[in-house]
Amino acid sequence: MTTNSSTERPIRAADRELPHPPFRLPVLGDVWDLHVTDSSQWGMRGAQQYGGIYERNIFGARVTYVSDPDLLTEINDDKLWAKFLGVPIGTLRSVAGDGLFTAHNSEPNWRKAHEILAPSFTAAAMRGYHATMQACANELIEYWADRSGQWIDVPSDTNKVALEVIGRAGFGYEFGSFTRTDEHPLVAAMLRILTYINRSAYSHPLVERTVFRQQRAQHLADLRFVNTEVDAVIAQRQSEGAGGHGDLLDRMLTVSDPETGECLDATNIRHQILTFLAAGHETSAGVLAFALHYLSRSPEIAEQARREIAEVWTGEDLTYEQVGKLRLVRRIIDESLRLWPTAPGYFRKAKQDTMLADRYPFEKGEWVFVVLLQLHRHPSWGGDPETFDPDRFLPERVKARHPELYRPFGVGMRGCIGRQFAYHELQLVLATILRNFDLTPDPAYQLKVKETITLKPEGLRLKLSRRD
User: What is the DSSP letter of 276?
Assistant: First the structure.
């Protein structure tokens, strides 16, 4: 067994002592402290109570939570620690298999897909998606213009625009989100799948087959349905002849891995499309919804953003180059992601026996959960961390802060490949909304955060009034 060079003692997980909830029971551990429906917020509350590193023991399984940025200097180092899927992301493999987000580090299709798709997510590549994003934003504005003065279900409608963006830019598919009177069956199935995965992630197979047998049967039927639907999209593109569409599906069908010369097979392409649907639109929709919530409660910040938009957006359409000049809009998005990173944490596992911070022994393969909700509320942010303040992201303040204090897109090679795509989409759509509408909040609304695989404000509604 590996030894710690400073002490020459073997590294043993059994020697690791961490703060934990009181009233720990034999065998059952901290089961009285178990939360399922709000597990990410539960992790944040634990960090606020027990500190920057603590653990829970559930039926003998130790779960370590980390939100101390100094500890993350080691944990986020790819030489020492690696991505771990964890729960519930591991259960998302039932949908996305070895897609970019859910592949194990050892699976060859991750590296192959990353090499093929990475050029499609660079800042320069955003120029090719700009017109599609703009068209979707304009459809949202038209949809809301017909409802001016009415209460709007914000999370539902931000889902619509984000879904259309990823559907069209990703694989040339229009969901008809702004014209349908019912929910698209693929969208409904994906929502049920994500809700089921989030709830069942900490359950037991026997419980699912008995107590939740009807929900499990629906889940399995939904999986078969979405697989069939996406396979049909891929087959249709293949029959038409790939090439010339300029979307991600074209690239997956026509571009080979530069190292091996191999292309992605149809099953993996399906996994990638479902990854983009599950992770790509839910996250963007959540950020937009949170941003609109905070802007409706901070009208002075919304007006500052509108002045910036008016200075930058001088023609009929917002151009590709102008999006990058919307610096306050970008800070609003970053601050929304700080408070509620829609992917609220990530897992890392030790690549070898290690003594974290020369104090906490972790054996090879042991993992930790990085609690972004608390990391993004660390005292190092200054002031009241619950206050919405986009100026936290002014260049001089970004330069001065701890490098591990803000990680909404993960870290290292397994960090979010769609980061540039998301920023361009969010800045464009948010600027279009602010230019066209005033936002009136419901005075009775208290922010409640709903957890599936991602986070979104539950029950958020705003009254939108068309601007001249």
Answer: I
- Determine the Cα–Cα distance for residues 245 and 265; give it in Å rounded to an integer: 19
Q: β-strands 461-466, 151-153: how paired? A: antiparallel
Tokens of 381: 């942010």
154, 462 in Cβ contact below 8 A?
yes
The encoded tokens of residue 65 equal: 């939570």
240 closest CA partner among 165, 184, 175, 172: 172
416 is catalytic: yes
Is the same domain home to 131 and 52?
A: no
Whether 37 is catalytic is no
Catalytic site residue from 283, 342, 354, 454 = 283
CATH number of the CATH domain containing 64: 3.30.43.20
Q: Is residue 199 part of a domain?
A: yes
Q: Are residues 277 and 292 in the same domain?
A: yes
> Active-site residue 122, yes or no?
no
pLDDT averaged over consecutive 10-residue blocks of the chain (468 residues)? 59 94 88 78 94 92 95 97 85 86 87 91 89 97 94 96 95 93 90 84 81 94 95 93 88 92 92 87 94 98 98 96 97 98 93 96 96 97 94 97 96 88 97 98 96 91 94
Burial class (CB in 10 A: 0-12, 13-18, 19+), 266: middle
Domain carrying residue 37: 1-88+342-375
> 142 and 160 share a domain?
yes
Residue 337 lies in a domain: no
Nearest to 81 by CA among 72, 89, 90: 72
Catalytic residue among 178, 225, 409, 440: 409
Q: Catalytic residue among 416, 421, 432, 454, which?
A: 416
Residue 327 inside a domain? The answer is yes
Comparing C-alpha atoms, which of 354, 349, 359 is closest to residue 2?
Answer: 354
Residues in CB range of 26: below 8 A, 6 or more apart? none
- Specify the number of domains making up the chain: 2
- Does residue 427 fall inside a structural domain? yes
Six-digit token pair at 62? 């130790």
Read out DSSP for 9-76? Answer: PBP-GGG------SSPBTTTBTGGG--STTHHHHHHHHHHHH-SEEEEEETTEEEEEE--HHHHHHHT
326 shares its domain with 368: no
CA–CA gap between residue 354 and residue 365 (Å, rounded): 10
